[in-house]
Amino acid sequence: MTTLQARRPLRATAVTIAALYAWPVLATDSDDAAELARASGCLSCHSQKEKIVGPAFASVAEKYAGQKDALAELTMSVQNGSVRKWGRIPMPAHASLPPADVKRLVEWVLKTPQ
To answer: Residues in domain Cytochrome c (predicted)?
Structure first.
């Protein structure tokens, strides 16, 4: 076995370890927003593609596509709650979520592929 062959497993291990330590840096904003949605309870009533209690994120993105005030309107709906936008079941207010987190969640929802 040559010295180069002996170093290959070590090099592969070093790359694997470096990738594991870099994982938080490699995570995308989308991954962060998805985790925020999980932690904030959004996924109790919503999913990416299918209606649960509230509309699917893809349906929201489709409905608000191209609307210049969509971000502001949806941010207010999440923060303050809304009634009769998607049927009879109201969306409760999420006043305890920081406004920056709400904005990040809404931006993520609006980017959901239809």
So the answer is: 28-113
67: CB partners within 8 A, 6+ apart = 73
d(CA 62, CA 55) in angstroms, rounded, equals 11
pLDDT, tens digit, for every residue of 62-86?
Answer: 999 999 999 999 999 999 999 999 9
Out of 3.40.47.10, 3.10.20.70, 1.10.760.10, 2.60.40.420, select the CATH number for domain 28-110: 1.10.760.10
Rounded Cα distance, 36 and 33, in Å: 5
Residue 83's φ and ψ, nearest 5 degrees, are -130, 135
Query: What does the alpha-carbon distance between residue 87 and residue 60 come to, in Å, rounded to a whole number?
Result: 13
Pick from 86, 89, 107, 82: which is nearest to 28 by CA? 107
pLDDT in tens, 17-26: 444 443 343 3
Query: How far apart are alpha carbons 101 and 94 in whole angstroms?
Result: 11
